[in-house]
Every structure is written in structure tokens, then in C-alpha cells.
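Build the 3D complex.
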Amino acid sequence: MLKLTGLTKRYATGDLALNDISLSVPAGQVLALIGPSGAGKSTLIRCVNRLVEPTAGAVELDGRDISKVRGGALRQARRQIGMIFQNYALVERLSVMENVLSGRLAYVGFWRSYFRKFPANDVKQAYRLLARVGLESMLDKRSDALSGGQKQRVGIARALMQNPKLLLVDEPTASLDPKTSRQIMRLICELCQEQNLATIINIHDVALAQQFVHRVVGLRAGEIVYDGSPDGLTPDILTTIYGEEDWSLTHQDSGKQSDNDQNDDVEAAIMGGHP
Amino acid sequence: MTDNSLAGAQRIAAAQNGQWQPLPHISSAALRWGLNAAALIYLVLVYFSVDINWARVAQGLDRGVAFMASFFSPDFITRGGEIAIGLRESLTMTFVATVLGIALAIPVGLGAARNIAPAPVYYFCRAIIALSRTFQEIIIAILFVAMFGFGPLAGVMTLAFATIGFMAKLLAEDIEDAQRDPMEAVRATGASWLQWINYAVQPQVMPRLIGLSLYRLDINFRESAIIGIVGAGGIGATLNTSINRYDYDTSAAVLLVIIGIVLCSEYLSGYVRKWTA
Ligand SMILES: Nc1ncnc2c1ncn2[C@@H]1O[C@H](COP(=O)(O)OP(=O)(O)OP(=O)(O)O)[C@@H](O)[C@H]1O
Ligand SMILES: [Mg+2]
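Done.
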């Protein structure tokens, strides 16, 4: 589905953010990309949809190299790649519906989009997605009037409006409370399963990642230092990724979360909810 | 170093006792007082270097008082017809020039925003802005009067030209200050350039664009009174004629009309700004 070969990025400032990364992600797989701040996680996913231009290497989407395409071909490639941002990145003065429909921009002509006359099927899909993320009653609300969690749901709906094959998610939960974070992660993972998307999620919360994803890739200083199952993240490996630290708590935590329902109670207790 | 930390300790001790004043912007006391003294000396020197002819001032004062006094007896009637024609011409000039100027300023402004325009376009558009802003309206008006002859056409061209520089510069600055994340997000959907402008940039700059347009309308009306004096038509021409005839009552009437219209536009723009927020 997605295949990176020898992907390298050196910024104009001289920082080598990615060093010869090779990675492939099959359809339907949710991959968590973890690593310390500055490891190059954001750079990696931005090189995929070319918000950042890679210095070298290939990015293949369904066997087609999109690392050098331009103009119409680039837009064509981008519309197959949905992206979800840490700061939601909604256009605040537009309504919820306009934000969601903006995911269809690459499918409709300029004047249609200018007059907001989207095809009925697009509007139906937008409504379905909003209902799926639980915001159908807010379609006319201006998006600066939403809470963080609601904004992120709109962001998810916008990304899925593109009918993408690949979803890139940059720290979707970094600005959310623990409970909303779990809900958002669950939603993203469920939707990816439903639509059989390849997904890369950048995330700092290792325990949260372990709870939801199929595969974890650890990045350190622009190089892959771990690629394997979420359960394989031993304290030793976390030390290779992040550096020396006492990992016992994190690890215990993730151990507990595998005997499922119990942690919902913990979650409820933390959030002050009723059992 | 020890000196500093000693002073710091004293300030902390004083704060414990409830005594605190912000640190002065200039920490050296000598420099602080020196700068104040320099400013004072400069003022005194300036006063003596400007050659003020008090006799002439006293003489002119009388004329000024007469002018002011005429505000209590403005004459809208005697030259009422001329005032009405001048006013209509000015309003027309203002509207046409503002609309035309803004229509041209939008593409220039887009091109002059560093975050959305490629370098060659950016430098070209910045050059247009610089050109338009370098020359005062009066100078452009004199040029256009020479090119197009006396009358409102020269006035419209002048105001439109000045509007381009003003609007494009401020619009470009607003675009440069726009939030980057939503712009990236819309680009990442695969939108075309125009769609991107329409969805990610326009919503962010629209309120300011509307506010600035109204402000420019207001400026253009006031400028139309000024450039009329060099022959570019409008109410300025009426004003100029009346002043030349020492017909201060009519001048006062013209000025009152201008004040009234500027006040109206002030209220209007306040209202529209609230509505577009
Ligand atoms: N626009 C840029 N120009 C120059 N250097 C950059 C730029 N963006 C990122 N870098 C550098 O590239 C490296 C990787 O940055 P990146 O943002 O990909 O890290 P990250 O893993 O996403 O970190 P975080 O977890 O803090 O988001 C860092 O050293 C950073 O300083
Ligand atoms: Mg990042």
C-alpha cells in the first residue's frame, strides 16, 4: 500500500531529520510512530503527502512513486491521503459542514466549491461521517465554537471525506484530556478498520498507542530503531528509543490494559465518572 | 555580577515587604537622565532654529479667526448647486475608485504575501506596492491631471492607484499572519490553488479585508477633497474655488458636509465590523 524507500530529509538549516528510512505499511494496518521530540516523526508523515519535500528516496502509493510528481498529479496523489493534525487545523471561520466538505475539494471543480454546491452524494457522505463521529446536530456551527475533542472529530470527518487509502495522523490526542484521547484513538482505529486504510499515527503516549495499534515503529534521530508489535516494547527497547529512564510504570500500565474492562473503570475513576 | 545579584536580593527583600516597582527600561541611571536631557536640549535648539515670524502669525491669526467664525454662519444656500454637484462628483469618484482599486489590490496582495506566492511574483507585487505608496496622492493627481485633463477621471485614477498600494500591502500582511495549520490542511486535501485560497485563506482575511475597504472608502472620500484642489474634480474643486474667493461661509459649508460624511462612514464601519467579526 505505502512503501517508503531510502527516504531522507535534510532541512535547509542543515538538520538531517530523516536518514534513509525504508518502511512499508499494508492496507488495514494501523502503525504507531513513536520517538522523542525532534526524532523526525512529523517530518516523515509530511514527506509522504509532500507538505515537506523529501531530499531523497521514494514514496510509493499503490506502486506509484509520488515523491516527485507536481501540479495535477500531486493533487491527485494528495486526495488519496487523508491527514489529521494535532491542532485540528480547521478553518475556524467556516462552518463544520464546510470544513468537512473541504475534504472533497480535489473531487469537484472550482466554481462548485466556490458556491458550496457540492454533489448530493458528497453532502450525504458528509452527513453520514458527522453522524458517525456524533456531531450531526452541529453541521451549521462555526468551527471555532467547538471544543477540542469536537474539533478533532470534525478533522477526522474531513480526512475521511477524501475517501483516502492512507491516513496520516500527527499527534491526534496531544491537546486532549485522557478520556477524550482514548475516544479519539478508538474512533480513528475503528474507522481505519471499517475502510481498510493504511494508517500512520504519530503519538507520544506509548501506553495509549499500545492499547490500539497493530504495529509500532520507533524513530530516533531520523532512523528506525524499532519495528515490531506493541507488546514487544520492553523497557530496554524504550530506552533505545527515548534514552535512559525508569520505564517500570509505563510498562506495568500497558500490562494492565490488556486485561481490558478493568481499565475502563480506572479511566472512569480518573475522570470522576460513575462506575 | 555580584553587584547585580546584590541588587536582585534587595529587590526580592523589598517585595517581601510589599515594595515593588518595575525595573526601568534603561538600567543605567546616567544614561536614562542623559537621554531625557538630550531630548530637552534638542527641543530648545529646534525652537531657535525654526524662524518664527510672530508678526505674520498674528496677521494670519485674524484670517484664521474669520475662517473659524464662518463655521457659525455656514452658507449652504448661495452656492448650494455647486456644492451638490461637487459632492455628487466626489462620492462617485470615491466609490468607483475604491471598487476599482480593491479589485486590483486583491491579486496584487495575494502575490505580495510571502507565504503563498513564489519569489518572483512576490518581488514583482511588492514593487507595485512600493511604487504606489511612494508617491503622495497630490503628486499622482498632478501627473494624472496632466495626462487625462482636469476633472473626475484623473481623480478616479489617482485614488484607485493609491488604493492598490494601501490595500494590497495590508492584505498581504494579513495573509502572512494567517494561521498556517488550516492552510496546510486544505492543501493536504489536494485542493487546487484557487480552492485553497477560497477555503483556507479567504475566510481568515475576509473580516479585515472588509474593515480595510470601508476605511479606504473613508480615506478616498477625504482625499477626493484634497486632490480636487489640484484640478482632479469633486468637492475639493468647489472648496478651492470658495477659498480663492474668500467666500469662507461656503468653505465652511463644504467642510461641514465633509465632516458629516466622514462621521457617517465612521459609524457605518463600526457597525459592519461588529457584524463581520
Ligand atoms: N521547517 C523546519 N526547518 C528546519 N528544521 C526543521 C523544520 N522542521 C523540523 N525541523 C527539524 O527536524 C527535526 C525533526 O523534526 P520533527 O518535527 O519531524 O520532529 P518530531 O519527531 O515530529 O517531534 P515532536 O514529537 O516534537 O513533534 C528536528 O531536529 C527539527 O529541529
Ligand atoms: Mg511532530
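The CA atoms of residues 3 and 24 of chain A lie 4 Å apart.
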